[in-house]
């Protein structure tokens, strides 16, 4: 899942080397913490959050095979 998130985000940003995806697993949830360069934050979020929502939709769809609830936080 980390590779999927990185693959989606890399073409959107000016500093792809600053992309970090950390994973926090709990009992029935998995949280992916995506961090990018501050100047790329607007590109990842998009107007009215549309890009972020699209990224989350793809990640959630890819994670439906898991028994856990998936969250994506962008920082």
UniProtKB/TrEMBL annotation:
Subcellular location: Cytoplasm
SUPFAM superfamilies, sorted: Prokaryotic type KH domain (KH-domain type II)
Superkingdom of origin: Bacteria
CDD domains: KH-II_YlqC-like
InterPro entries, per database record: KH_dom-like_a/b (IPR015946), KH_sf_prok-type (IPR009019), KhpA (IPR020627)
Chaperone recorded as keyword: yes
Family annotation (Pfam families): KH_KhpA-B
Keywords: Cell shape, Cell wall biogenesis/degradation, Chaperone, Cytoplasm, RNA-binding
Family: Belongs to the KhpA RNA-binding protein family.
Quaternary organization: Forms a complex with KhpB.
Biological role stated in the UniProt entry: A probable RNA chaperone. Forms a complex with KhpB which binds to cellular RNA and controls its expression. Plays a role in peptidoglycan (PG) homeostasis and cell length regulation.
Protein name from the UniProt record: RNA-binding protein KhpA
Species whose genome carries this gene: Cytobacillus purgationiresistens
Gene: khpA
């Amino acid at each position: 899942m980390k590779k999927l998130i990185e693959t989606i985000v890399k073409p959107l940003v000016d500093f792809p080397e600053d992309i970090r995806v950390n994973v926090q697993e709990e009992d029935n949830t998995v949280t992916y913490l995506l961090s990018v360069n501050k100047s790329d934050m607007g590109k990842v979020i998009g107007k009215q959050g549309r890009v972020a929502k699209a990224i989350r939709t793809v990640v959630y769809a890819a994670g439906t095979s898991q028994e856990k609830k998936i969250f994506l936080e962008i920082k």
